[in-house]
Amino acid sequence: MELNDPTASALYEAVVRSGGDLVVGLDFDGTLAPIVEDPTQAHVHPDVPDLLVALADRVRGVAVVTGRPVRQALALGDLDQVGTRIAERHRSFIVLGQYGNERWTAVDRRVVSPRPPAGLAGFLREVPSLVRRADAADAYVEPKGLAVALHTRRLPDPVGSFARLLPLVADAATRHGLAVEPGRLVVEVRAPGMHKGLAVSRLAEEWSAKGFLFAGDDLGDVEAFTELRAMRDDGIATMAVCSHGGDGPEELEEIADHVVDGPEGVVDFLKGLVADLGPQAG
Ligand SMILES: O=P(O)(O)OC[C@H]1O[C@H](O[C@H]2O[C@H](CO)[C@@H](O)[C@H](O)[C@H]2O)[C@H](O)[C@@H](O)[C@@H]1O
Questions:
Q1: What is the number of the ligand 1 atom nearest to the C-alpha of 27?
Q2: How much is the pLDDT for 280?
Q3: How far, in Å, from the CA of 10 to the mean position of ligand 1?
Q4: Residue 160: in which H helix or E strand, if any?
Q5: Is residue 231 in some structural domain?
Q6: 282: pLDDT confidence band, cut at 50, 70 and 90?
Q7: Residue 74 is part of a domain; what is its CATH number?
Q8: Residue span of the structural domain in which 62 resides
Q9: Which residue from 77, 143, 153, 197 has the fewest beta carbons nearer than 10 Å?
Q10: Mean pLDDT on 21-33
């Protein structure tokens, strides 16, 4: 595949050379699934299931690493079916949910999850007052078991509502000992201590990666991109691909090695990768 930038080309070629020792990590919303107004309707691009199987045939392992609860990602991405196909081929596929707190593998097929953080119940009791004070009373509240996400995308003033809500939520989260994860017109409150950087580093270790490619679109992917830089310094071939979308953060683009145009661009990029990796591993 031809990439315009020589630095990105060199990184890409190194990643392709890592072949059977390559790990591919993929964010869900905004990367595999287009951003839509209703989070319960965010389905993956139609080519994604076959593409994940084709990738898994050629690399050490494929992982979806998402802020979503694992069960949601499995349902919206048809990922349990994908897992079945990949496991039948004796290849590796993992879904890490809630920023790495939940884990599902195509072999075990059960969700391993910690208990909800202690402060979450107290924080949830404050949510009605928080959204009222931010003049965002109709914000969509997405319960996630281990976390809660407050969405402003469907409000009349999504950006303004988000800006008013964020500091109030951050203050309350801190009081309850919880972490704040701002995203694309969403602010999420969850347990501290886990993030996608740690998730990526653990996958690399588990799969003895000699190459790692990760694609993401939002602030929650910054730690994964940062971890790839650290891995590169340790001699692992890495590439961070930003899925660019309308309200995605500039901060992620700035630290990406390559930028593509949303999930459509991610799918095209991964098809090119599959072609360049060549015939499937034995
Ligand atoms: O780590 P991700 O896979 O990117 O998940 C992050 C959050 O994504 C979801 O919200 C985003 O997508 C929605 C559907 O397109 C969109 O309506 C919303 O504005 C976006 O922020 C999801 O609802 C959250 O639970 C995830 O944490």
A1: 3
A2: 76
A3: 32
A4: helix 158-175
A5: yes
A6: low
A7: 3.40.50.1000
A8: 6-114+194-277
A9: 143
A10: 98
